[in-house]
Specification:
The protein has 13 helices and 24 strands. The structure holds uridine-diphosphate-2(N-acetylglucosaminyl) butyric acid.
Length: 418
């Protein structure tokens, strides 16, 4: 088990380069299940979740090799296996989206039901409704979802909620269906556009990605192509908060400014100075952080994946902030740990009320999921004294590439202990 010890109170200064987007790389890698030939995907962050996806694809029969720098090479020809491995898929609950491409390619898919995790239940009803609309027969057996359709048929699909994974899975499935599919109320996240751009490069006919209505004209086959993954907007936001919370001054490079507008707006409201460049943001902390209210929403609203990090920052603000979480039902697991560090936070249903305190004090804390871990690292960087964070490998390494060396280069006193 990897743990981190942080000696807080040092302002972060310097330049940090953001890695490729985890939440783009994962569906793009899954979508290689639809292709024939060899694809080289670059700017793939080498993270535990990405390694899990690589292992899933290998079990399904693809050849997948990683090469430096950050390139995943995938070879696929002919049939793949249709049973997704339980131990791997349940490790990474959002990976249920592989059901779409497996079914489209093989006419049959057997994927374990995800069950619950630290941030919520992760139901799959939107995937199932969508696949049924495309003509699939769905059964549940021994904890697996079994989907069958000798050939999927294009159809209109309406999502009750703009689920990221369901949009991705159904978009992938529809690329090889007979006829046209229109996904209404689809998710609009940049990662959806990235997946559509990759699939279009492979010969798919997808239009409208990034809007609430995506049209997919089915094609008979897709040829593998090379592609570069977009930068990780959540990693970018996390380093921006790291600059702000430590009283630092950081140039965050390798970003797509258009993907982080809601994060930039909230940080500016809190008094943080941000100067945007073409692919960078210079973030300078204010003398004191202002309280702000935030509600997480589907893109382009404020991302749920930045909510815990903002909770840490607003714990040190002047005044009262209210954060409302509207995407996941249980994403306040970091609050109890922040309270152990001296934060004054009350949970009221789907909201938290944060009374800013003048300082946090380092403490041993436990992390329960990836972004909660990021929030605790940020709090530890700002706190007085030593913070010991558990379970780095189970959570933080899932989503932040080389986080310790990036922080150390910015002047943080953060070290791994085995
Ligand atoms: N939902 C349903 N039924 C479904 C699908 C989703 O009720 O069939 C609900 C979920 O329970 C949740 C909400 O809809 O309450 C949104 O879930 P969504 O499907 O959009 O999330 P996801 O695809 O499982 C992705 C990211 C998450 C990110 C969310 C929201 C990946 C691999 N994961 O998950 O990322 O929080 O979208 O933006 O893309 C993270 O990186 O830390 C992370 C958790």
């Amino acid at each position: 088990m990897r743990k981190i010890i942080i000696n807080g109170g040092r302002p972060l200064n310097g330049t940090v380069k953001v890695s490729g987007a985890k939440n783009s790389a994962l569906p793009i890698l899954a979508s290689t299940l639809l292709l024939s030939g060899k694809a080289s995907i670059t700017n793939v962050p080498l993270l535990n979740d990405v390694i899990t996806m690589m292992r899933v694809l290998r079990v399904l029969g693809l050849r997948v090799e990683y090469s430096e720098p950050n390139t995943m090479n995938v070879w696929i020809n002919g049939k793949v296996r249709h049973v997704a491995p339980y131990e791997l898929v349940t490790k990474m609950r959002a990976s249920f989206f592989i059901i779409g491409p497996i079914l489209a390619r093989m006419g049959l898919a057997k994927v374990p039901l995800p069950g619950g995790c630290a941030i919520g239940f992760r139901p799959v009803n939107y995937y199932i409704k969508g696949l049924e609309a495309l003509g699939a027969k769905i059964e549940m057996e021994h904890g697996f979802v079994i989907a069958k359709a000798s050939k999927l048929k294009g159809a209109p699909i309406y999502l009750d909620f703009p689920s990221v994974g369901a949009t991705e899975s159904l978009m992938m499935a529809a690329t090889l269906a007979d006829g046209d599919t229109v996904i209404e109320n689809s998710a609009k996240e940049p990662e959806i556009i990235d997946l559509a751009n990759f699939l279009n490069k492979c010969g798919a006919k997808i239009s409208g990605a990034g809007t609430q209505s995506i049209t997919i004209k089915g094609v008979s086959s897709l040829r593998a192509a090379d592609y570069r993954v977009i930068p990780d907007r959540i990693e970018a936001g996390t380093f921006m908060v790291a600059a702000a919370i430590t009283g630092g001054d950081v140039l965050v490079e390798n970003i797509s400014p258009e993907h982080i507008s809601s994060i930039v707006t909230k940080l500016q409201e809190a008094g943080v100075s941000i100067v945007m460049g073409k692919n960078s943001a210079r973030v300078t902390a204010p003398q004191g952080i202002n309280a702000v209210d935030i509600k997480t929403l589907p893109y382009p609203g404020f991302p749920t994946d930045m909510q815990p990090q903002l909770t840490s920052m607003l714990s040190l603000a002047k005044g009262t902030s209210v954060i409302t979480e509207s995407i996941f039902e249980n994403r306040f697991m970091h609050v109890q740990e922040l309270k152990r560090m001296g934060a004054d936070i009350q949970i009221e249903g789907h909201s938290i009320i944060i009374e800013g305190v003048p300082h946090l004090s380092g403490a041993p804390v436990r992390t329960s999921d990836l972004r909660a871990g990021a929030a605790l690292i940020l709090a530890g960087l700002a706190a007085e004294g030593e913070t010991l964070i558990d379970d780095m490998d189970r959570f933080i390494d899932r989503g932040y590439e080389k986080i310790l060396s990036k922080l150390e280069r910015l002047g943080a006193d953060a070290k791994e202990v085995k």
